[in-house]
Amino acid sequence: MPAPTITLENVNYTINGKPILQGVSCDVRAGEFLSIIGPNGAGKTTLIKCIANIYTTDNNAIKLDNQPISKLSQKDLAKLVSYVPQAGGANFPFSVSEFVLLSRYPHLSPFTSPNQEDFNAVREALIATETIAYENRPMNSLSGGQKQQVLIAAALAQQTSIVLLDEPTTFLDPKHQTDILQLLKKMHGERDTTILMVTHDINHAALLSDRILALKDGKTAFLGNVSDCMNNKTLRPIYDKAFLFTDHPISHNPIVIPEVVR
Question: With a threshold of 0.85, does the pTM exceed it?
Answer without folding.
Answer: yes
